[in-house]
User: What shape does this take?
Amino acid sequence: MSLQVELEQHRNTLIVRLRGELDHHTADIVRFKIEDALLRGRCHHVVLNLQELSFMDSSGLGVVLGRYKSVSSRGGKLVVCGAQPAVKRLFELSGLLKILPFHDTERAALAGLEVVS
Amino acid sequence: MSGRDFMKLAFSSRSENESFARVAVAAFVSRLDPTLEQLQDLKTVVSEAVTNAIIHGYEGREDGIIEVEVEIEGDTVSLTVTDQGKGIEDIELARQPLYTSRPELERSGMGFTIMENFMDEFEIDSAPGAGTRLRMKKRIESKKALYN
Assistant: This one.
């Protein structure tokens, strides 16, 4: 598979690490795994670590926007960290860069959330 | 580099072929020695165009045919992506940023906006029932030129 999804729970936060390429073909698995983990676990917030994500297109934007909506509707926060320049440009173009908090590292993202919760 | 240099691919409208198409185009274009950013832009554009053909043109049917043609002339890359799917009803509406005809699929509606932004020229030729052809051009500034 061209995309790997790693999930880890840290207190009330679900950390999602994506490795590989996020496109229309791989979007469903990301959507399913995050929603499934949120339904089963006690996670309130989501940290999306994109450090190892080498490619993303607008299908990826759709998935991130969708998770932002579902996490927000439950009163949680979704933050993004480690996005590479090409990936970040797409967030910028779509306006998501203004809506979502972006951090350089996973540690900074988690620290940001602990101030929030 | 001078003269006409082109390649043409035809493949089935399966989502697995999105990554195949962008890798194939990137490999072909790499002879121009593009920067990493330009190569990423082209890969993203190919991905958007092929994904549109699969989702909107063929509405998820896997037996459609998608054609991708790339032509290199001097330092300019011409990319054409064609499907024989259902075509676009309202091209102006489809080009609006954030517009999607399939909100239930969690689409971002950014496909055409990305293609227009990442390419120098962008043209849609489509009619209901007659498929869609996207024609795009991008000038590549090779890394060699930057360094010399």
Notes: Chain A has one domain: 3-116. The CA atoms of residues 72 and 78 of chain A lie 8 Å apart.
